[in-house]
Write a structure and sequence with these properties.
alpha/beta, two-stranded antiparallel ribbon, elongated, 2 domains, six-stranded mixed β-sheet, 286 residues, 8 helices, 38% helix
Length: 286
């Protein structure tokens, strides 16, 4: 007797067909859900740029030449710095109006160099892409102006006249935001004095800067430390107010984080680095 011809066999075959269809339906739904938008964006290490040299964005091997020097119009053209002073950035996948799909957010959790963040942590609620880009550009222009003012004030306090800082040109390309102020000011000081501040070492840094030379906190420091080490820096000047984030992050091997609170403090740290007085350098403490 063919079991499939019995009522019991017919019922089992019917259930099996339903189960197969349900399996494929669940699979299709699961795949569709992976492509659904989330409320998250992904932060990754961005490019670096040595403000003492050519205006070149370094993406960890892939380089984009912006043309000319990073800082011009100050100091002697014949001065050739030995070390590097890198500004560091972050890249964000997503925008105020678009977020990453679920599969990218899930993958981001397992990538050591990625941070998955709620959109509101990175972008103001209700902002648009054009508003964010305009805001970031405005913040960058403010950072350059304050870097010039703080550098001029510092040089004056050291007895160095720098009347040409106002006319200095700083190339930042597509980089926005306020966090390059500290590095810009140090670059201006080195070029104005015509003296090597880094002692030939590769130094990176980040931090907002006031006209009076106070270094302020920034965002994305975990990703910025990774970018700094990726592109060769051994020392990383960071705002002292960011020490809690530094201590809770994975500091790349071979990178020494040096917290600073003022432009003069950062200058002193560079003097210690260039003179190999490394035991004198401050560090973040719990």
């Amino acid at each position: 007797m063919n079991l499939g011809d019995t009522p019991h066999g017919f019922f089992k075959g019917y259930v099996a067909k339903i189960a197969r269809h349900a399996y494929w339906a669940a699979a299709v739904i699961a795949v569709a859900l992976l492509f659904c938008p989330t409320n998250y964006v992904i932060e990754k290490p961005g490019p670096t740029m040595d403000v003492l040299g050519p205006a070149v964005l370094d993406y960890g091997g892939r380089k984009v030449d912006l043309g000319g020097e990073a800082i011009t119009g100050v100091g002697k053209a014949s001065f050739s710095p030995k070390g590097s002073l890198d500004l560091v950035t972050v890249n964000v996948l997503g925008s105020p109006s678009s977020t990453v799909p679920a599969f990218m957010a899930i993958a981001g959790y397992f990538e050591p160099d990625s941070r998955v963040l709620p959109r509101e942590v990175v972008f103001p609620i209700g902002s648009s892409l054009s508003q964010d880009e305009a805001g970031q550009e405005k913040l960058m222009e403010g950072a350059k102006a304050r870097a010039k003012a703080a550098a001029a004030s510092f040089l004056k306090s050291q007895g160095v006249s720098a009347p040409d800082l106002e006319g200095a040109k700083i190339e930042s390309g597509p980089i926005g935001g306020p966090s390059a102020g500290l590095v810009f000011a140090l670059g201006l000081i080195e070029k104005a004095e015509g003296k090597d501040l880094t002692g030939g070492r590769d130094v990176a840094g980040t931090g907002t800067l006031s006209d009076a030379g106070k270094v302020g906190a920034i965002g994305g420091i975990a990703s910025k430390m990774i970018a700094a080490r990726r592109d060769g820096a051994s020392f990383f000047l960071a705002p002292a107010s960011n020490c809690p984030q530094v201590l809770s992050s994975r500091v790349p091997e071979g990178l020494r984080v040096v917290p600073v609170g003022t432009l003069s403090g950062a200058f002193s740290a560079l003097q210690d680095i260039s003179s190999s007085r490394l035991s004198s350098l401050p560090s973040c403490r719990a």
